[in-house]
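Chain A, query sequence.
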Amino acid sequence: NDKYKINLIILPYPDFANNAGLKLVEGIHKLGFVTVYYDDTALVFVRDSIQNKNVVDKFGDKLVDPFSDITAISKSKLVQAYLEALNNQKNSPNAMISRYIVEFLKIRLSQEGIPVPVEK
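Chain A, predicted structure.
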C-alpha cells in the first residue's frame, strides 16, 4: 500500500533484537524494503524502487543483516555474503554486530575451505 508514500524506515536496534523484531523486519522486507544500514543502535531500510536504485545497489543487504540466519547461508553464497558484510562494516566500523558477522563468515569460509577474499 503506497497510501502514505513511506520510503524510509529507521528502527532502534537492539530494541527489536528479539522474535517480535524478526517478524517486524520480515514484514518490512515483504513490503519491498531493503536493509541499507545497520549498527549497534539502528536499522535503516529504504523502499526498493527506481528512485532508491543507487542506494540499494551500493548499500542494500541481500544476504546479511542482524536478523538474517547467517548459519544458513549456502556455501555457494558465502563469498558474496562475506563481501556484503565487509561493505557494511566499512559503513559502521565500530559496530559490534558488524564485526561479529564478518568474523563469523570468515570462520565459515575457512571451514568450507574457501579462501577469504582480500579487502580491496
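Strands lie at 8-12, 33-38, 42-47. The first strand starts at residue 8 and ends at 12.
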